[in-house]
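Translate structure to sequence.
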């Protein structure tokens, strides 16, 4: 078991990121920056219709276009399942090309002839919920969940001193990572190398192996630097599979990076959230009940769940019925604590409105309804720290009577998230004759400093300076690590690097101890 250093030299100290100079000087190469010898450029033809049946795809003109080396239909019209012939949102991929230049690829895409049977569509949640709305999926436009109920909500509301009843909503939010989705794929016989903008190199490898029906051992995924993901790049994208297929068909490397419009249409989003809420409070500021009917859309066939009431404050009586609503839009993906921003927003606004009814300080109402303090439930302590630091005592009551359109105020809210590390994480440590050390972990640095953390932990364990240690990450040739999402990365790689470094150090001590005439346990690294 790894031990915590008694007198750490690096851990817990302010350390400049080791990749900072390369990033600020433009030396760091992201997938978008890379080129390969003989590389082609890929482009995807996307449906202009929100809902349609693809009748035919004619690739012949595109195949004859200048510079074109590969053309693929991405809708399999030979598939006997009729639903696979449909496009369910504007932006869904239909065909793809690879050409010598980006301009030639763009020209060729426009030569692909697709015959559509345009179908009725629904663009909003309100449209989809109407009884006369066209069905976009065979099962309909809505999926209702079970009623989740604890206690006697109606009696508690009836006996409450104050009841707030209102509707709340948040909109769909699309991802906008600085580096768009995409990859470069290069085949060498039956072996595939992929340079991808991804939050999970091993996830990309496994997904591609399944999609291409090949062994994982034949696929290598590399992500040296990547420009953000926020949950949208945790798995294999259709564009990654398309890139690999184009490269195979062309017999040359292909680069397929999405443009900004494609990002908004086809790479996922945070679902919307709607809630009709009734919430009660006693005269002394104790929450009594929370009753909600909720719904939201995650796009075409995707859910829109969120926790409610948000699990920070204690409502002894609560009830909720949730409905997922499907519309003709791109499906949702994880986005920064999936569901939590929506649930937190709705609950916290309700708390503010209940405080207004009581004419009570909003912070005081929250403090009166927190769970008992525990190692993972210290909101009371942190609320008071925050209040002191932002000058909460000088806050004016809700509303601002000063003239003019610009108003100022202070607010407070609490959130929660769990981020435990993965016990499946592995690492490999190599010690060189000159005393330098390399730590290899198949994680990826999505901009949060993972590479620096691995070096810090390794250097601390060996008693070295950072310039004597190298962290090699972002490659499926290195031992397994989970995707960088859910706040698990540092909790996964830090103890793994520590344990692996300690084992390597112990092996070194056993090797050199006889020559030094001491016991291995007497050797100290400093």
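Result:
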């Amino acid at each position: 078991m790894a031990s915590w250093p008694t007198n750490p030299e690096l851990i817990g100290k302010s350390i400049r990121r080791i990749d900072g100079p390369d990033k600020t000087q433009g030396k760091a190469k992201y997938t978008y920056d890379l080129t390969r010898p003989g590389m082609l450029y890929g482009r995807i033809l996307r449906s202009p219709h929100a809902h349609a049946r693809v009748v035919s795809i004619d690739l012949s003109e595109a195949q004859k276009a200048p510079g074109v080396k590969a053309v693929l239909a991405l809708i399999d019209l030979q598939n006997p399942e009729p639903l696979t012939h449909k496009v369910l949102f504007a932006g869904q991929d239909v065909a793809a090309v690879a050409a010598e230049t980006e301009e030639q690829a763009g020209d060729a895409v426009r030569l692909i002839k697709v015959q559509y049977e345009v179908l009725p569509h629904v663009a909003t949640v309100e449209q989809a919920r109407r009884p006369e709305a066209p069905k976009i999926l065979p099962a309909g436009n809505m999926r209702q969940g079970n009623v989740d109920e604890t206690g006697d909500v109606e009696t508690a509301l009836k006996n409450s001193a104050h009841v707030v009843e209102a509707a709340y909503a948040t909109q769909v939010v699309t991802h906008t990572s600085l580096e768009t989705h995409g990859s470069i794929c290069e085949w060498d016989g039956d072996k595939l190398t992929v340079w991808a903008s991804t939050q999970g190199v091993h996830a990309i490898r496994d997904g591609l192996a399944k999609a291409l029906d090949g062994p994982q051992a034949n696929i290598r995924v590399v992500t040296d630097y990547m420009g953000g993901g926020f949950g949208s790049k945790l798995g294999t994208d259709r564009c990654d599979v398309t890139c690999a297929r184009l490269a195979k068909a062309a017999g040359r490397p292909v680069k397929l990076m999405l443009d900004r419009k494609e990002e908004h249409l086809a790479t996922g989003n945070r679902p919307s959230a709607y809630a009709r809420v009734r919430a009660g409070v006693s005269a002394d500021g104790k929450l009594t009940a929370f009753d909600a009917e909720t719904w939201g859309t995650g796009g075409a066939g995707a859910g829109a769940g969120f926790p409610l009431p948000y699990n920070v404050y204690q409502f002894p009586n609560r009830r909720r019925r949730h409905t997922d609503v499907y519309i003709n839009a791109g499906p949702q993906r994880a986005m920064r604590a999936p569901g939590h921003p929506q649930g937190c927003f709705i609950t916290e606004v309700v708390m503010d409105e209940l405080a207004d009814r009581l004419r009570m300080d909003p912070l005081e109402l929250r403090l009166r309804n927190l769970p008992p303090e525990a190692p993972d439930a210290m909101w009371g302590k942190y609320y008071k720290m925050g209040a002191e630091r932002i000058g909460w005592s000088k806050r004016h009551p809700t509303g601002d009577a000063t003239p003019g359109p610009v108003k100022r105020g202070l607010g407070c809210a609490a959130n929660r998230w769990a981020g435990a590390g993965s016990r499946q994480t592995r690492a490999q440590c190599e010690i060189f004759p000159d005393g330098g050390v390399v730590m290899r972990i198949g994680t990826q640095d999505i901009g949060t400093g993972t590479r620096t953390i691995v070096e810090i932990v390794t250097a601390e364990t060996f008693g070295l300076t950072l310039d004597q240690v190298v962290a090699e990450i972002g490659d499926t040739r290195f031992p397994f690590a989970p995707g960088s999402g859910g706040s698990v990365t540092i909790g996964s790689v830090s103890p793994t690097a520590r344990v692996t470094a300690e084992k390597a150090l112990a092996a070194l001590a056993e090797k050199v101890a006889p020559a030094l005439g001491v016991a291995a346990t007497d050797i100290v690294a400093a």
